[in-house]
Each structure stands twice: as structure tokens, then as C-alpha cells.
Amino acid sequence: MLGAHVSVSGGLHNGISNGEKFGCSAIQIFVKNPNRWQSKSLAQEEIDRFCQTWEVSDQIEEVIVHDIHLTNLASPKPDVLEKSRQHFQAQIDLVCQLGVRYLVKHLGSHTGAGESVGLQNLSRSLDFLLEETRHTDVVLLLETTAGQGANLGYLFEHIRRMIDDSRYPERLGVCFDTCHVFAAGYDLRTEDDYHQTFEKFDQVIGLDRLLAFHLNDAKSEFHSRVDRHQHIGQGHIGITPFQLLVNDPRFSAVPMIIETPQMDKMHGQNLKVLKELKGNS
Ligand SMILES: [Zn+2]
Ligand SMILES: [Zn+2]
Question: Ligand 1 centre from 64 Cα, in Å?
């Protein structure tokens, strides 16, 4: 299931048509302005229009929502934590109304308070939110991160701990971002690296938790802990793992979403590269 992060400018339903235009069978969207706390709440009309547009689409099978960039569920600051929780809870409810299953979330940052404090805050936040939204079946996909600055989630063990600490582990899954994992120090460049990294993932988290991919090549170097996406096959990761991924029978039902640069201009090209790799193993 191949797709892309697409724009919803002009209304959420445009995400569906933008995805169709690029030949996607899965899309990822933001449902709120990702860089702003304040954004007007969605009218029921817009929610209905999205649902109807998706319903009649014979192409888009899966829609994934990505959380906004500002929420930090691991923050040591009570006011930030509170605001983040409120915001995130509203997004879970919205995602549920849209009929979407998966909401992707970064693990957040400890902002200097130390990893163990950050992870503890995060696991409390997750339990609180899953409890408050127990009337929904929205699954939170914790995204592997590059570990830039004080960001958590660059070790598979961080994600394992969130699952172990949760009272609702059935509502937690993982979004595996190739660029982030590579920048975090899990190599993917050769066939051996690829198999070792997924074996490690399986040992620590379990492949059954891997419910979505972000396919991005990396502009940043291996183990640089820097998050910079590049077009497929044009970065430091190279084409090999992408070829293995799109042909890996373990992941044939898992949505694979590109988040590569210049979406309007380049999404078509990047998806074409991936489609050509399919069956070409
Ligand atoms: Zn990502
Ligand atoms: Zn990234």
C-alpha cells in the first residue's frame, strides 16, 4: 500500500483528491495547522465532506493522520504538558469522527530534564489520553525518531517501554520512518543491514506492532541524529532498502507513506521510483 503525505489546503476532502492525483492507495494528512496551537475547529460539514469523499474513492484505502508539531507529551513543564494533552485528546476525537484508525505521534522531547523523566511523563500522558478516549478505537502510532536534540524515540527500547508501561497496549503501534531510524544509528544500506535492523526491531518491539512506514531517504548522514528527508534513492540511505521494503511480504499490507521534499513537484516522481522497484527484487 503506497502513498504520500498530502496537502489538505482548501479542505480536508482535498487530501483524498490530492492522493488520487499522485496514484496513492494510502495518504497521510494533518487535520490541524501543524505549526500553530490555535486553529479553528472543524465544522461538521467539513468532516462529513471528508467522509463522503473518502467513501466514494475507489483508490484511497487507508488514511493516516499525523499529529501537529507542537505537542510535547513528554514535557517536564506542567503548562506545556497540559496544553499538549488537551490538544492531542481533541485530535484523537477528531480522527475518530473522520473514520481514521491511525494517528501518528512523535515521542516528544525531555527538553533537558533527562530521558527517564521524559519517558515517564510520556507514558503517563499516553495512559491518560487512552483512558479519556477509551470510547474510540483510534490506534496511536509512535514514530521512530532521529533523536535530534533532546527528542525521545531514537531507540526501539523507548517505544518498547511505552508499550510495557501502558494499560492500553492494544491501542499502541509503531510508525517506522526510514530516515529517522537511519539517522538514529540503525543501518539499512545493505541487505544485511536491512535484515539486522528489522530483526532488532522484532526482538525489541515486535513486527506485529509495525503498522505504518514513512519512506524517506536521508539528507543527513548515518547516525548523525539529524532529521532531514531526501528523495527516494538520492540520499545517504540509497535505493537498496526501499527495493527490499516494497517487496517484503511481511509488509505487503502495511501503508508506506513518503514524506519527501517538494510534495507538489516531486511526489509523483518519488512514487514512480517506488512502484518501479516493486516486483523488481
Ligand atoms: Zn516521519
Ligand atoms: Zn522527519
Answer: 12
